[in-house]
Amino acid sequence: MNKNIVIHWFRQDLRLYDNPSLTEAAQQGAILPIYILDDDNAGEHKLGGASRWWLHYSLLALNKSLKGKLSVYIGDPEKILIDLAEENNIEGVYWNRCYEPWRIGRDKKIKKVLEAQNIKAKSFNGSLLWEPWDVLKKDGTPYKVFTPYYRKGCLSAIAPRTPLAEPKYLNLYDGHSNKLTIVDLKLLPAINWNKQLEPHWDIGEMSAQYKLEKFIYNRLENYKRGRDFPALSSVSRLSPHLHFGEISPNQVWYAVKLNKETDDLDHFLSEMGWREFSHSLLYHFPELPRNNLQTKFDNFPWLQNTKHLRCWQRGETGHPLVDAGMRELWQTGYMHNRVRMVVGSFLVKNLLLHWHHGEKWFWDCLLDANLANNSAGWQWIAGCGADAAPYFRIFNPCTQGQKFDPDGEYTKRFVPELKEMPSKYLFNPWEAPDKILQNAGVTLGENYPAPIVNLKLSRVRALDAFKSMK
DNA sequence: TGAAATGTTGGGGCG
DNA sequence: ACGCCCCAACATTTC
């Protein structure tokens, strides 16, 4: 009878390198590696469609690295773990921590139940550079403003853990009772929507590391400036890999830090800082996904308009940069960050629709959908967050297009019906003379939508709405 | 990690 | 040569 079996419970850490829980488990004896699809406890934040697609392939890649020994389950982890322990004489269950409120609650309970049965339950930090409870102001309260959080709270604290090597020897043990395969998790959507995502992504731990290396080698040098131009691939596009833990923030942090310290490097690292900040906010303010951090926004006069919401979701607002962004999201499961700000500002300010609508849509469509980043991001753009963009910062999608997509390369890629439009009118086709529209083969309201709102008027309306709050 | 409105400055055309 | 006007370019403030 096996006595030294330790379960490593894979969650948001689908990798072998720099995996503290796995490394520790490997030193105890045989490992039973498992993944549990838990839709029961997630409530309204169970995985969205795009995330499920990614997870499917990420689990396949992980299983391959584990020589086919990954056991997968569906259901309530507490019951599954207890059953497994009874069947297999399990000595301990190890995992890397997650920070969503529902997972924290669930995991705390599981820890208790396991310990009551004399099974070791150990959790590790595998997903953050600094633990949220370690980064606090002098008075013991959490930071609410990014810059002091990052500068004082993080950078002048103890440096993050340096990455661990892959465990040299994994004695992998099969859970005999389990018959489920990854395909049985039914993570792929029933409709064929996922096909269009495929050409844009290579999923899994090895792809993540390769992508990081390529980013550092080719694009880090121009990051500070290049990151503003969605047509360039100057960003790392590591976010889905980071979200699923195919690569750890520590691996990214230290690989980047090997390079010459420049503004580009600092800027990239500070983006990692924003990721930490979001997780810290979610940990200390677990209501972040639902409630405005600034309560005065609770009586903001949001509008209801399903027609406008639908236009926004489908990329049919008649505002080319907004439509390009929303279509990029739908077609690739990703959106460049500058464009995320533009479409977010448009939804919340020009359309006056509640940020929850945006948060929900992103949750379902983004491959990197992450509760902390997504809710913090939406509160930031809506102006109701802790350290948010002031409400009166309203992006003009026309100006943003001219500044950051001057040749229209990005916009035309996703809104091909405007391919022949001259740059001068690409972002405001409603102002183009008839002749120019004709030459470009564009008929507004027919093959490209007429604008659903007037930018000038809706801006003034948003400022009035903002003033009306007490 | 805004944009628009308003203010200031300085060069050039012109009487 | 000079003052005046216009306006682009830039700076500041306001939302």
Adjacency order of strands in the biggest sheet: 3-2-1-4-5
Q: CATH homologous superfamily of the largest domain?
A: DNA Cyclobutane Dipyrimidine Photolyase, subunit A, domain 3
Whole-number mean pLDDT: 96
Strand content: 5-15%
Please identify the structural class as seen in this structure.
Answer: alpha/beta
Distance between the first and last residues' Cα = 68 Å
The helix-strand sequence is EHEHEHEHEHHHHHHHHHHHHHHHH
Work out the radius of gyration. 24 Å
Number of contiguous helices: 20
CATH architecture of the largest domain: Orthogonal Bundle
Low-pLDDT residue intervals, each spanning 5 or more residues: none
Q: What is the makeup of the main sheet?
A: 5 strands, parallel
**Globular, elongated, flat, extended or rod-shaped: what is the shape?**
globular
CATH topology category name of the largest domain: DNA Cyclobutane Dipyrimidine Photolyase, subunit A, domain 3
Account of the 3D structure:
With 470 residues, this protein is an alpha/beta fold. The protein is globular. It has three domains: 5-126, Rossmann fold, CATH 3.40.50; 128-164 and 204-284, Serine Threonine Protein Phosphatase 5, Tetratricopeptide repeat; 295-467, DNA Cyclobutane Dipyrimidine Photolyase, subunit A, domain 3 (Orthogonal Bundle), CATH 1.10.579.10. It starts with a strand and ends with a helix. Helix 12 crosses helix 13 and helix 14 runs antiparallel to helix 15 (371-382). Helix content is 46%, strand content 6%. It has 20 helices and five strands. The chain has a five-stranded parallel β-sheet with strand order 3-2-1-4-5, sandwiched between helices. The structure holds a DNA duplex (15 and 15 nucleotides).
